[in-house]
Design a protein that fits this description.
homodimer; about 290 residues; alpha/beta; Rossmann fold; 6-phosphogluconate dehydrogenase C-terminal fold; 2 domains; six-stranded parallel sheet; three-stranded mixed sheet; 11 helices; 9 strands
Chain lengths: ~290, ~290
């Protein structure tokens, strides 16, 4: 492939940043990939794996001369790092990210970047359950969905270049407004985390010997990193609140059917969810 | 092993009934195991597998002369079948079951059985996600917990005989009141089903392309059998309602922490659930 970019800088040498570097270099999509890390050991590892051509601990130095900067850190650091590098990027630079929430990030980094540069939000939905450069792999994004979140002010050619990059590493690109992205992910990802954590909280001490595979699987994601999830839930506050409200409303509807011993209504509610889930994962069953 | 029973009748030739027959016969715990089925094909299969010594479609005939009758059907049929056979069991017979809920079953079958016989509730927590005689296996109960739910009126020797049977097939026996059993299982099993189904219900149509492995696992049990779960939720109505109320209260607490942007409180809530879950499944991680 012809390179899409002369120089791409990836800020964050973890799973997503490392995998993106491996994919860009492996597919010849960039002449040079520069990595910015928080610790020298991650930079060294990224260099040894071939995920980057050069690395630095200094973000402002790392982003110089880059046509594209991808902020590939956890959600809580994206805005801070973006604001740090804002005055150091070259004219025409596109800054993007990989964060699980988009509204706040897009708003704040669009405001932070100088005239003649632009921010376009991105969220590759991949690999959220492993972390660190050691888990990085060149095919992480193959078959994954990557959501791009342009706004009315986004330059069409900037969007197309970012789309070409994510398509180039194997992702299926979808475009949503930041607000629509956040509302969808609140229901499809953030709410399930909330529910899993609160199912565990509802258990009482005598319950421990009576937990089966059902609740084990239902609550698996309650073992995820606490800080990461604080960042996600707080940076997507309104959409998460709306999703919890909707969920509570559905719980109340089912609760009412149970309370009034209305078997027909209860069966209709459970059957609708069963059909919906089977449509979402046609190959999976409850035996999986 | 010396047989514990001359004649055990298992009503229901499915996963649990078939596995119990295989385990009793394999370990020599009963001189004869009689199976009662709803369809001849299941009886034939149970005979061919060696799960029973003899089979019949007629429950009242099948339970004659049995020292122990185990009602091994789905929750919705246990009371009906128990009431049908109540007048046909011999003096001294112990009737038991394998239902996932206990209060209503124990109350109604204790009332239905004649003087000189007794009902002792049982719930082996095993194999709930597969069904049918073909999935039966002799080791299904090895390492599983089996809850027995005696009442103040339960004869101690009847309880001990039932305990010996479940211990004999490899289960760890725990004793709880029917009410305590139902309250615990409402939180550890029934509520997770409710939550999984309502997480699916909260998804909206544009969300379908943005579901990852988190929500897939969290909602796995929403694909379970609808009628089975109507039976369970409705026969454990009050405890399920209480569990949903508790869960909603926990959701509200977390929601308030998000709404007020209280990171410290949110982190404390998520960390408590993470620790609790890791204590429940020490070998599992969120990478599992």
């Amino acid at each position: 492939m012809n390179p899409l970019f002369e120089r791409v800088t990836i800020v964050g040498a973890g799973l997503i940043g490392g995998s993106l570097g491996l994919a860009l270099r492996g597919r010849g999509l960039a002449d040079a990939v520069v990595g910015v890390g928080h610790r020298q050991v991650s930079i060294d590892r990224a260099l040894a794996m071939g995920a980057i051509d050069a690395g630095t601990l200094d973000a402002t130095e790392g982003v110089q001369d880059a046509e594209l900067v991808v902020l590939a850190t956890s959600v809580g650091l994206i805005v801070t790092l973006g604001e740090q590098i804002a005055s150091c990027v070259r004219a025409g630079c596109v800054v993007s990210d990989v964060g699980s929430t988009k509204g706040e990030i897009v708003r704040r980094l669009t405001a932070a970047l100088p005239e003649g540069t632009s921010f376009v939000g991105a969220h590759p939905i991949a690999g959220s359950e492993q972390r660190g450069i050691d888990a990085a792999r060149a095919d992480l994004f193959e078959g994954a969905t990557c959501v791009l979140t342009p706004t009315d002010d986004t330059d069409a050619s900037d969007l197309e270049r970012l789309r070409a990059m994510w398509t180039g590493v194997g992702a299926t690109v979808r475009t949503l407004t930041p607000e629509t992205h956040d509302a969808i992910l609140a229901r499809s990802s953030h709410l399930p985390h909330v529910a899993a954590a609160m199912l565990v909280a509802t258990l009482q001490s005598p319950d421990d010997d009576f937990v089966g595979s059902g609740i084990r699987d239902t609550t698996r994601i309650a073992s995820s990193d606490v800080n990461l999830w604080c960042d996600i839930l707080l940076s997507n506050r309104q959409a998460v609140l709306d999703a919890v409200t909707d969920f509570t409303r559905h719980l109340t509807t089912l609760r009412d059917a149970v309370a009034s011993n209305d078997r027909e209504r209860l069966a209709a509610i459970l059957a609708a969810s069963k059909r919906r889930r089977e449509a979402l994962w046609p190959d999976a069953s409850h035996h999986e």
